[in-house]
C-alpha cells in the first residue's frame, strides 16, 4: 500500500482505473431546496453508486492496486456496512476471498448485501478498538491483505474521484463543496480533489453531534475521540486516522455539527422533494448547509450524498 499522499496524477489514474466498474453518478438539483437554503445546490448522488455508496470507489482502487501475490490469501477489512459491501464487491470482481468484520448492530440491509457478494462475516462489539483487534486476528490467521476503510492512500485516491466528477459535471464554478465526515476518507479525498482541480472552492464537512470527534480534532490540532457516540448516522461513528487528519487540517475550511433531528429532516427533504433514497449519513451534508444557510447564502454549493443503504423497515420519519 502506498505511503504517499495522492497527487493530481494519482487521482486521475485512479479515476481511469475504476471507471469501468463504477457509475458516473448524476448531479441533481432541487428548486425547493435552493429556495430553502438561498443558494444553488448541486447534489452528487453517490446513493446511486454501485453498492449504494461512494465507498465502491475507494475499495475498488485499493483492491485493483494489489498484486496477484497480495490477493492470493484474500482481503480483510472492518466496517459498519458501506465499506464492507464495497470490499466484498471489489473482491468478487477480482476473484479474491473477502473477510469482513462488522459490528453486531450493523443494519440488516448492509449485512445482507455483504453476504450477497459472498464475503465471510465475523461480528464484533461496535467499538473501533474491537473492530481493529478482530480484523488483525483474521489477518494473522489467513494472511489476507488488510484494506483500512479510510486510513489508506489508495482508498483516499478512489474517494477523491467523487469530487473530481462533480467539478467536471457542474457548468458553474463551485464556491463550496461539502461532504460528511466519519473516518475522513471521503472528506480528505474531496479536499485533495478541490486542491488540485478547483482550488477556488472552499471545502466544508458535516458531522453528527452524536459523533463529534472530527470537529474536536480540527479545533485542537490532534486526533480526538467523540465525548459520546449516539447518532442515527451509523456510517459516521469512527474517528479520524493519521493519514486523513493532516489532509483535513490542511485543506478543509471548517466542520459543522448537526443534530439527529436536523439529519432526519434533511433526509426527509431528499426523499420527498427529490425522490432520492438516502441514508442518514448521506443527508448530513445537506443538514449542515440548512443549519448554516446564512453563511452559504448566494453561493454555488456542491453537496455530496454519500450513500443510500437504509433499512426500509426502519425509516426515522
TrEMBL record:
Cofactor(s) the protein needs: pyridoxal 5'-phosphate
GO biological process, one term: D-serine biosynthetic process
Domain Tryptophan synthase beta chain-like PALP: 19-307
GO molecular function: ATP binding; D-serine ammonia-lyase activity; L-serine ammonia-lyase activity; magnesium ion binding; pyridoxal phosphate binding; serine racemase activity; threonine racemase activity
Alphabetized SUPFAM superfamilies for the sequence: Tryptophan synthase beta subunit-like PLP-dependent enzymes (SSF53686)
Spans traversing the lipid bilayer: none
UniProtKB keywords: Lyase, Pyridoxal phosphate
UniProt record similarity statement: Belongs to the serine/threonine dehydratase family.
Protein name in the entry: Threonine/serine dehydratase
Lineage: Bacteria, Pseudomonadati, Bacteroidota, Cytophagia, Cytophagales
